[in-house]
C-alpha cells in the first residue's frame, strides 16, 4: 500500500503543467509574407504591395534586396559633387550589399527585411511622401499586408 501511494505521489510530481494557449509564443514574422519576399529576392519578382506597421500604411512595389541596394547606390552617388570616377566608386560601395541577394543566396531562416520602390508612407494624419521613394523595413514590424498598391 505504501508503495502504491509513493507511486501516485511520483506520478503527480511528474505531471506537466497544463498548456495555456495565451502563453504559447507566436511567430514574429508572417510566414506567407516572408515567402513573398523570398520570391522577390531569389526570382527578382516585383509586385504591388501594401503593408501595415502600427498605424502607418506603406504602399509600393515589392522588389528584391539586390534591386533595392543597386538603386540606393545609384541614388546616393547622384547626390555627390564629384567627378564620374568618384561617383562610380561611391555607387559601387553603397551597392555592395546587393551581392547578398540572388537565386543561389536564400537564407534558411528566411529574409528579415522587405524592400519597396515607389513607396508612399501614409499615417492617420495624411501622407508623409507624395512621390514614391525607396523603402526598407523589418518584417518583424509588419502587422498586416495586402497585394496591390493604394493609389
What does this protein structure show overall?
- By secondary structure, this protein is of the alpha+beta class.
- The protein has a domain at 28-64 and 101-147: SH3 type barrels (Roll), CATH 2.30.30.100.
- Helix content is 34%, strand content 25%.
- It has 4 helices and 6 strands; from the N terminus they run ααββααββββ.
- Strands 1, 2, 3, 4, 5 and 6 form a 6-stranded antiparallel sheet that branches.
- A hairpin with a 2-residue loop joins strand 3 and strand 4 (126-127).
- The radius of gyration is 24 Å and the shape is elongated.
- The mean pLDDT is 86.
Brief account:
This protein is α+β, with helices and mostly antiparallel strands.
Describe how the helices and strands are arranged.
Layout: H1 2-14, H2 31-43, E1 47-53, E2 56-63, H3 65-78, H4 84-95, E3 113-123, E4 126-127, E5 133-138, E6 144-147
Antiparallel strand pairs: 1-2, 1-6, 2-3, 3-4, 3-5
Helix pairs in contact: 3-4
N-to-C SSE string, H for helix and E for strand? HHEEHHEEEE
Q: What share of the residues does DSSP label as strand, in percent?
A: 25-35%
Q: Count the helices. How many?
A: 4
Q: Name the poorly predicted regions.
A: none
- Sheet with the most strands, sense and barrel status: 6 strands, antiparallel
Q: Architecture of the domain at 28-64 and 101-147, according to CATH?
A: Roll
- CATH topology of the domain at 28-64 and 101-147, what is it called? SH3 type barrels
Indicate the overall shape.
elongated
- Helical coverage, percent range: 25-40%
What's the N-to-C terminus distance?
78 Å
Q: Tell me the radius of gyration.
A: 24 Å
Give the beta-strand count: 6
Structural class: alpha+beta
Mean pLDDT: 86
CATH class of the domain at 28-64 and 101-147: Mainly Beta
Amino acid at each position: 500500500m505504501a508503495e502504491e501511494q509513493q507511486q501516485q505521489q511520483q506520478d503527480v510530481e511528474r505531471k506537466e503543467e497544463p498548456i495555456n494557449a495565451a502563453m504559447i509564443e507566436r511567430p514574429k514574422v508572417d510566414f506567407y509574407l516572408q515567402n513573398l519576399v523570398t520570391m522577390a529576392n531569389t526570382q527578382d519578382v516585383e509586385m504591388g504591395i501594401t503593408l501595415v506597421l502600427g498605424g502607418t500604411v506603406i504602399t509600393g512595389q515589392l522588389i528584391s534586396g539586390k534591386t533595392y541596394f543597386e538603386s540606393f547606390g545609384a541614388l546616393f552617388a547622384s547626390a555627390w559633387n564629384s567627378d564620374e570616377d568618384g561617383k562610380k566608386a561611391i555607387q559601387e560601395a553603397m551597392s555592395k550589399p546587393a551581392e547578398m541577394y540572388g537565386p543561389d543566396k536564400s537564407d534558411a531562416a528566411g529574409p528579415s527585411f522587405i524592400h519597396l520602390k515607389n513607396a508612399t508612407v501614409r499615417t492617420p494624419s495624411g501622407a508623409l511622401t507624395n512621390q514614391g521613394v525607396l523603402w526598407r523595413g523589418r518584417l518583424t514590424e509588419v502587422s498586416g499586408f495586402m497585394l496591390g498598391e493604394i493609389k
